[in-house]
Design goal:
It is built from 13 helices and eleven strands. By secondary structure, the protein is of the alpha/beta class. The protein has a single domain, classed as D-Maltodextrin-Binding Protein, domain 2, CATH 3.40.190. The strands form two sheets. A six-stranded mixed sheet has the order 7-6-8-5-9-11. Strands 2-1-3-10-4 form a five-stranded mixed sheet, sandwiched between helices. Helix 2 links the parallel strand 1 and strand 2. Helix 2 packs antiparallel against helix 10 and helix 12 crosses helix 13. The protein starts with a helix and ends with a helix. This is Tripartite ATP-independent transporter solute receptor, DctP family.
Length: about 325
């Protein structure tokens, strides 16, 4: 009888529990972000700060980071974000210009005198315009880091005059303004994803390439390139992009946490990148690259040869965005 009562009591408790609702254990939402930059590049380390700050926010959202092309090349990362396959990417802005051509407006050759001038531009009305255009294409721009001034390397000769670029087969990012600029300089530019670049230089398919010093160092291009210049022909940004639908699906609290964490990461990276730029150039020289400073006279000649690029951009993008960029640069 006692056994029967125990069984009945157990069944009653089971039925009672089945009808009760218990609070579910919260599970953090994981945001997956991929990048093509090396793990030790300042942008990838900044994303680690983003990840840590997001965890500190304690809003049940965290980040999984995949630097160094773990999820594919730069173009693939952009497409993955656009399709929603991953939440976001940190990427050179040129790789997004095929989707939002207006981003090329900051690719005017020899337009920037300093990184501070570049930050002021991208943090102001021009950046707001870019963010609106990106949103129309399904992206949310979360922030802009420094990629930096781009400089030429090659295996043929030091760049001492404007004529030294004649005929050089140089890899550039997939940005029509970048390509047009180097055609105007007499070079033979080739668009290529960065994931293919080291091999192409190693095999002699290309004579050279152009990148900020930090990229030349972290991608080890010094192993397959001899001559290094300080041409500073473009200043380049890294944009941190999220899939707009995925970002909008986050609660207001989580969106705020993502933005706050990213703002701290961007602030750190901009300061760090400036110091690492100098360190990277010296490291490349110490590793055996032949460094040739470009004189003011040569830089003026390079600027003169590319003066028509602005008119080409006006025809392509319209006058409004170019006028906006020029007005901000003139301040």
């Amino acid at each position: 009888m006692l056994i029967k009562q125990t069984i009945l009591k157990g069944c009653s408790m089971a039925l009672l529990c089945a009808g009760m609702t218990f609070p579910a254990l919260s599970q953090a939402e994981t945001l997956r972000l991929g990048g093509n930059f090396a793990a030790d590049h300042s942008s990838s380390r900044a994303m680690e700060i983003f990840k840590a700050e997001l965890e500190k926010a304690d809003v049940d959202v965290d980040a999984a980071l995949f630097p160094a092309m773990q999820l594919g090349g730069a173009q693939e990362n952009v497409d993955q974000v656009r399709s929603g396959a991953i939440f976001g990417t940190w990427i050179g802005i040129a790789y997004v210009s095929r989707i939002v051509p207006e981003l090329e407006a900051v690719s005017l050759p020899f337009a920037f005198d300093s990184r501070e001038q570049a930050f002021k531009l991208i943090d102001g009305p021009v950046g707001d315009t870019f963010n609106e255009l990106l949103a129309k294409k399904g992206f949310t721009a979360l922030g802009y880091m420094e990629l930096g001034f781009r400089n030429i390397t090659n295996n043929e000769r030091p760049i001492e005059s404007a004529d030294d670029l004649d005929g050089l087969k140089i890899r550039l990012q997939p940005n029509e303004t970048h390509l047009a600029t180097f055609r105007a300089l007499g070079a033979n530019p080739v668009s290529m994803d960065v994931k293919e670049l080291y091999g192409a230089l190693q095999q002699g398919v290309l004579d050279g390439q152009e990148n900020p010093y930090s990229i030349i160092e972290t991608k080890r291009f010094n192993e397959v390139q001899k001559y290094l210049s300080d041409s500073k022909h473009f200043y380049d940004f890294i944009v941190v992009l999220a899939n707009k639908d995925n970002f909008d699906s986050l609660s207001a609290e989580k969106q705020a946490a993502v933005k706050s964490a990213l703002a701290k990461a961007v602030s750190w990276q901009r300061e760090q990148a400036a110091a690492e730029d100098k360190q990277a150039r010296q490291a490349l020289i110490d590793a055996g690259m032949v460094f040739t400073p470009i004189s003011d006279e040569t830089r003026d000649e390079l600027r003169a040869r590319t003066s028509g690029i602005k008119d080409t951009l006006r025809e392509k993008l319209g006058t409004e965005i170019i006028d906006q960029v020029e007005a901000e640069l003139a301040k």
